Structure formats: C-alpha cells, structure tokens
Amino acid sequence: MRRAARLAAALAAAGLAACAVGPDYVRPETPAPPEFRGQIGPAEATSLADLPWWEVFEDETLQGLVVEAIESNHDLAAAVRRVAQAEALVGVAQSPFYPQIGYQGSAGRQAQPRLQSIPRTTFSYFYGAFSLAWELDVWGRIRRSSEAAREALYATEEFRRGVLLSLVTGVAGAYLTLLELDRELAIARDTTESFEETLELFTRRFEGGVGNKLQVARAQAALSQTEAEIPDLERRIVFQENLISVLLGRNPGPIPRGVPFEDRQLPPATPPGLPSALLERRPDIRQAEAALVAANARIGVAKAAFFPQISLTGFFGVESIALSDLFTGPSRIWQFGPTMTVPIFNAGRNRANLQLTEARQRESLLRYEQSVQQAFREVEDALVAHRKAREAFAEQQTAVRASREALDIAESRYRSGLTNYLDVLDAQRSLLAAEIGESRTLLSQLIAVVQVYRALGGGWDSGSGS
C-alpha cells in the first residue's frame, strides 16, 4: 500500500508538472483607426458610455422603464438562464480534476451445474466495495477542457450583457419615438384647428358672395389631409406602446410619459472613447474573443487524445459467501494501481476530430475579427449620425422660425388687403411641414445618442453589474 501511494504521488506530480498540449491563446492583432469621422473634441475626453444614462436624458420615467425592463424582460431572463447553464458546465468540466469515488454492492444466490464427479452446489454471495478512479492530467486534456468551459461561460455572460445593452437602448429608442409621435399628433391637431378656422372663414366669404368656391375647396382639402394623419398617428402611438410593453415583459397597455418631447434638452456633443477601449468594453467583441479562446483550448483537448491516458484506479471492500463473515478480516479485498489506455487504431477519428476543432478555431478567429470591424463601423456610423443630426436640427429650427414669420406676414398682408388668403393657407402648410421636420430631426439626434451609447459598449449599471 505504501509503495502504491508513493507511485500515485509521483504520477500525480508528473501530471501537474507537465505542460498542456495545444496552442496557448494570443490575442490577434486588430489594427484600430486612429480616430473616427464625426468625432467631436479630443479622443481623450470622457466617453458617453461612461455617463450614467439618466445624466444623458434626465428623464426619471425613462429610467423607471429601463429598470422595469431589466427586471422583467423575458429575453434577458432567458440569457441569465443560459449563464446558469454555462456555470454548471464549468463544474462538469472541472470534476475530472478530482478523484471519482463510488460504491458498489451486490448480493445474490447462485447454483452451479453438476460436472462429472463434482456435485451440484448452491451458495449465496455478498459483495461491497468502494471504487476509485483518478485520471492524471499528464497532457493537459482536462485543463484544456476546463479552460474551454470557462471561456464558454465568459462568452455566455457577455451574451447576457449584450442582451442587456440591446434591451436598454431598445427601450430608450422606443420611448423617444413614442414621445415624438405624441408631438406630431399635437402638431397635427393644432394645425387642424387652424385649418378649420380657415375653412370657416372661406365658407362665410363664399356664402356672402365675396369669396369663391376654389378657396373653399382648397381649404377643405388642406383640412382633410391633416385630419387624415391623426388616425394614423394614433395607430402608430398604440403600436409603439405595445412594443414597449413587450420589452417591459408586460401585456400591451398604456405607457407613462415623462418630459414632453418639445421640452427636452438637446443631447450632449460627447466624444467617443479611444478605439482600443472598444476591445475591452463591447460585449459582442468580448463574447467573440471568449469563443475564440474556447475554440483554441479545444484544439488541446483534441491533441491530447493522441497520447496515452493514465489513471489511478482501485477498490477496497469485502466479499464473502456468508453474510456473517462479510465484515471479518479474511473477506477483505483491495486493489490499487495505475492503468494506461493507448490509442492505436480508431479509423482516423482522432485526426478528424483535431481537424474539426482547428477549423472551428479558424472560424472563431474570423468572427472575432469581423466583430471588431463591425464595432468600429457602428461607432463611426453613430458618431456621424449624431453630428449630422445636430447640424440638420439647427437648420430645421431656422426653417420653423422662417415659416412662422412667413405665416405672420401672410396674415398681416391678408388683413391689409394686399394678398388673398391662399398665401396664408400655403404658409400654414409650410409651417406644418417645418414643425414635423423639426420634431423628426430632434428624434434622429436623440436616437443617434442612443446608438453612440450602444456602439461604445454601454454604461448602464443596473446595480448588479452592467
């Protein structure tokens, strides 16, 4: 027993000292752009993704909706369950590091046939023993397998973070769109009242013999066109509320509003983080890299299959044909020693499995490189959209001011008898289009901020980690 114990210790030490076969992971070179087009200010400035969400939009209602979505959204809950599954698989992969101990017991009665001079005999037997099996990780198969499982867990956790980021930005974007639709509906209703007054005026003038039927018809057409937009806007508002309700994990229903759209502050002109920081921030890149590390580790598992598998096995127990003698000294049995399994021929299975893992590793590498390039593209797109939306919004504000001034001038000239009311009607239409354009441009600017936030990997912290 002492010699067996010394042999086990020596083999275990050799296994721990041995290097794991297969390639060690080295992060691929991914050249980053020195700066992004659309970037505002120095790259060293604070990133939007480092700002708390409520400091960007200052809307407690939006913050409450986001928290509710984090707590109740079904997609996020499913992602959390996937993380729990990956954690369990890590435990499964690490279990071979430790000895596997079991117990086996049996009892029965057996009859042997009569053989020439040997009479037929019948006897009982009883057996009970503890078994031990411990694979020595000489070639690193277990270590590589455990590494792959851990990285798969990291990838799953990053997938959860990606779902969380998409959920937060999805709720924010849908909520801002809802507020903008409310604004469009208010503009349409206000314009409808103005057109109703115009139609009433033209109708009175026509009935009094001063105006003409053309003025009445044009006023009626302008009123009907505006009124036709109201039911469509109301439909879109209900659809948007239902969309947000699903994101919140609740049945379709009304959604509360916070700061009115027309009273919202302009979003900040915030520069991005450094390009290299994207590799450490974005969950999709981190997920792709964890999958690449796992695929790299599985190559080691596949290579270890070419080498002998060495294990320590043994058992200790009792065996007897009489129950009364089962626990006496002579009934004791034991065995302990190393076993080795050497692969000789398996019809190319191990080689094909190695080729499979290497091909999957190359695929994971391509996906990682693609995710990095996709990240850089999304950041630049979001920054350009953010900057151009600010420029467009400034022009739309100018257009609204000019349209209001034109309407005031047209009404003044009409009251002075210098022009007909059709100029007023055209000015009203121009103002409606300008106000709708201003509202939609502001929405584009706000959505661009959300997209910058998402492209930079997010900064939302739900209290338990982002």
Instruction: Bin the helical content.
Output: 55-70%
The CATH architecture category equals: Up-down Bundle
Q: What's the CATH first level?
A: Mainly Alpha
Succession of helices and strands: HHHHEEHHHHEEHH
Low-confidence stretches: 4-17, 40-47, 460-466
What share of residues are in beta strands? 5-15%
Question: End-to-end span in angstroms?
Answer: 54 Å
For the biggest β-sheet, the strand order reads 1-2-3-4
Mean pLDDT: 81
Q: What's the tally of helices?
A: 10
Radius of gyration: 38 Å
Overall structural class, as computed from helix and strand content, comes to alpha+beta
Q: Count structural domains.
A: 1
**Overall 3D form:** elongated
CATH topology: Outer membrane efflux proteins (OEP)
Query: How many strands, which pairing sense, and closed or not: the largest β-sheet?
Result: 4 strands, antiparallel
CATH superfamily label: Outer membrane efflux proteins (OEP)
- Number of DSSP-assigned strands: 4
Write the layout of secondary structure elements.
Blueprint lengths: L1 H16 L35 H5 L2 H13 L1 H21 L5 E13 L8 E16 L4 H67 L5 H35 L27 H7 L1 H22 L4 E12 L11 E10 L7 H67 L5 H35 L11
Antiparallel strand pairs: 1-2, 2-3, 3-4
Helix pairs in contact: 3-5, 4-5, 5-6, 5-8, 5-10, 6-10, 8-9, 9-10
